[in-house]
TrEMBL record:
One example GO MF annotation: peptidyl-prolyl cis-trans isomerase activity
Keywords noted in UniProt: Isomerase, Rotamase, Signal
Protein name: Peptidylprolyl isomerase
Superkingdom of the source species: Bacteria
UniProt-listed SUPFAM superfamilies: FKBP-like, Triger factor/SurA peptide-binding domain-like
Signal peptide positions on this chain: none
Length: 298
């Protein structure tokens, strides 16, 4: 909207009550007193009211960018947060939907997700690098910074839960599968490729990767898994063991210890750098925007 036309339009709105008076213009949007009144306390000074107003202006600028960039939260993300809100308040989703202010809750969720989507869009290609000095300096500030080491392993497995039905007339299914896996173990120990045999014989979805897994947290594996792997070193092969109806042999591909304190610290430092960049970006778009503040109405 043309600046002159916008001002004419504003000052012609004589019907606005004091609480809803216009206190700022942000590009084509108006900021009214009631948009910040809920956060104003009786003892707030004009300076404190200006802080609230500037926060509202920054929010409006971000919402304008969200509209320009067509950033829209996905339905499953919205529904996920609504489910969490219901659960945290001991409500079913249906009960939450029946509340008089449900539409306001949905709007708030959509806005929060859109704002985070904008932030991710702005910072996604930063490629932030942390120096060893930065990490060490912050790590030493952690009270009682004892390591929270998490043991992780990477495995390859051959899993089998069915055999040729004709052979079941002579021996039990468990015996047949166990002996089959023992035969495969002997081949592997003699030099045959575990990956090739997994692709040929494993009935687990991991067969496509030669039976290999991603990194697994050792203590989160089933107890039987832990018991059969605890004494194995990298490169070792387990004896056949059964979990539920599935027999398997497992090879230890790699082991590592992850310091969760360090992981959390790095994530925090990256987030801080992203926040600095994002706040500088808001200052930039603010300089480029048309903003007029009527602080005499605060």
């Amino acid at each position: 909207m043309n600046k002159t036309l916008l001002l004419i339009f504003i000052f012609s709105l004589n019907a606005f009550a004091t609480l809803n008076s216009i206190i700022a213009i942000v590009n084509d949007d108006l900021v009214t007193f009631d948009q910040i009144s809920a956060d104003i306390k009786p003892d707030h000074t004009r300076v404190q009211k200006l802080v609230l107003l500037n926060q509202q202006i920054n929010l409006i600028l971000q919402l304008q960018k969200i509209k320009q960039l067509n950033i829209t939260p996905k339905a499953n993300a919205i529904n996920g947060i609504l489910s969490n809100i219901a659960s945290n308040n001991d409500l079913s989703l249906m009960q939450l939907q029946s509340l008089p202010k449900f539409d306001e809750i949905v709007d708030h969720v959509k806005q929060s997700l859109s704002l985070e989507g904008l932030r991710q869009f702005i910072v996604e290609n930063l490629g932030i690098k942390l120096t060893k000095a930065e990490i060490t300096k912050q790590f030493l500030k952690i009270p009682n910074h004892s390591n929270k080491l998490e043991q992780q392993i990477k495995i390859a497995q051959i899993a089998v839960d069915s055999v040729n039905q004709a052979n079941l007339l002579l021996r039990s299914k468990d015996d047949l599968i166990k002996d089959f896996l023992i035969d495969l173990s002997e081949k592997i120990n003699k030099g045959d490729s575990f990956s090739t045999l997994a692709k040929l014989h494993s009935q687990d979805a991991s067969y496509k990767n030669g039976g290999e897994s991603d990194w697994l947290v050792l203590l989160k594996l089933p107890k039987i898994f832990q018991q059969n792997l605890k004494d194995l070193s990298v490169g070792d092969l387990s004896q056949p063991f059964k979990i539920g109806q599935v027999w398997r042999i497992v090879k230890i591909i790699d082991k590592r210890s992850i310091d969760n304190n360090l992981i959390e610290l790095k994530a925090k430092l990256v987030r801080q750098k992203e926040n600095i960049y994002f706040n500088d970006w808001i200052k930039k778009i603010r300089k480029e925007a048309y903003i007029e503040i009527f602080d005499n109405k605060l």
